[in-house]
Amino acid sequence: MRVRASEPALYVLVALLAVGWITGFTISVGGVPATPDAGLYPQLLIAAVVIAAPWFVAIRLVWRRWWTRTGADLATLDPPAQLLAAAVAATPRHRRDWGAAMLAELDQVRDPAERWAFAVSSARAAAFPPRIKQVPTYVVAALGVAAVAAAGLTISRTMPALQVFGVTFVALLGVLALVTTARSRRILRPPAAGFVVTAVGLAAVAACVAAVGYFLTEFPIGALHLPPAAAVFLAAALAGAVWLVLNPPRGLVTSPQARYVGAGIALSLAAVLFVLSQRGLNDAGPLSVGILGFLFLAPVPVLLVGSLTTAFANRSFRTGAQTAVWAAVLTSLAFFAVALLEAINWYHVGSSLILAADGIPLVAVGENLRNFSWGLILFPSWWLPFGLLGAALGHRIGTLVRRHARGGDVQGLGSLG
């Protein structure tokens, strides 16, 4: 019954996702025309429904699994306990005993004001555990400030068009490094995502940054399509990817197989995109939908099958979901780098945009950069629900197969008796 009671919130969440996606897509293609065609808004409505449908099913599946395992118990807690429980859930594994002790101690506090004070202070301690020495934090802060200043001076002299993007990106990395140092007792530690995913993710981000720099070196006029707001958005997206790779949530790193498969999917799809782009994607056999069609459609079945396979092999929805997340994130980064570099070749060869037709004036070449920048968010948010559906299907099939096998074993033992 509680799941049914939550459905209005589910409808609102899916509607917000769909509206946000359509808004981002509209901005990525230059916004609504001054004199829009009469069929534009019905097309956007249809697109919103198409985006919302898989997300509705995927979120419903995830919600039901979460509610049966965690949500029902969490709903019995009062707001201070919920706050502390959420903070404890985000703590590293080695601090779980401390979190359990804090939750047990909160149960002994009866006064509402005191409960809130204890929950807030404990949540702050969970997010930023006390350090014996504060020197590393101060050092990282000083290095971050120096890096931002150096980046600003260097980029302003060598490539002014990248100044906002470069300074913002370096500043965000500095903030992330400072937060990580403040939360961790160990400065140097093995990457939580594993060396393979960490290497692929960081290499993909570096390739994206290099592609942006090379693109604006080849076409400085393209900076017209990277105003300050867009530059900050792109820097935040890439810095967020670095944060996810270096400091992934605990729920994304329980399965090494999911990370390997996700990285393999990303590298494979990027290689296929490069080969087909080199051939001229519009003439590549049945893939006559162009690069936009490939970016939009090709990862869908790949993520679905990849997540289904890992979920089935491990009898685990979580493993399949992790596969979907890593594949979606890493593929979006790899696609950005490959597509932006290929856009340079496309314009040199045929004066065409990679997502448009031939004969495009030079002033419009920066549309490639704007399109693919938004693609870092739009594409994975479209692919991901199909990966979650594959994870649910793989877990279901694996469970049925295991039950069938156990039934057969029981029958075999009965016949032996």
From TrEMBL:
<feature type="transmembrane region" description="Helical">
    <location>
        <begin position="228"/>
        <end position="246"/>
    </location>
</feature>
<feature type="transmembrane region" description="Helical">
    <location>
        <begin position="44"/>
        <end position="63"/>
    </location>
</feature>
<feature type="transmembrane region" description="Helical">
    <location>
        <begin position="161"/>
        <end position="180"/>
    </location>
</feature>
<keyword id="KW-0472">Membrane</keyword>
<protein>
    <submittedName>
        <fullName>Uncharacterized protein</fullName>
    </submittedName>
</protein>
<keyword id="KW-0812">Transmembrane</keyword>
<feature type="transmembrane region" description="Helical">
    <location>
        <begin position="135"/>
        <end position="155"/>
    </location>
</feature>
<feature type="transmembrane region" description="Helical">
    <location>
        <begin position="258"/>
        <end position="277"/>
    </location>
</feature>
<keyword id="KW-1133">Transmembrane helix</keyword>
<feature type="transmembrane region" description="Helical">
    <location>
        <begin position="289"/>
        <end position="313"/>
    </location>
</feature>
<feature type="transmembrane region" description="Helical">
    <location>
        <begin position="192"/>
        <end position="216"/>
    </location>
</feature>
<feature type="transmembrane region" description="Helical">
    <location>
        <begin position="325"/>
        <end position="347"/>
    </location>
</feature>
<feature type="transmembrane region" description="Helical">
    <location>
        <begin position="372"/>
        <end position="393"/>
    </location>
</feature>
<feature type="transmembrane region" description="Helical">
    <location>
        <begin position="9"/>
        <end position="32"/>
    </location>
</feature>
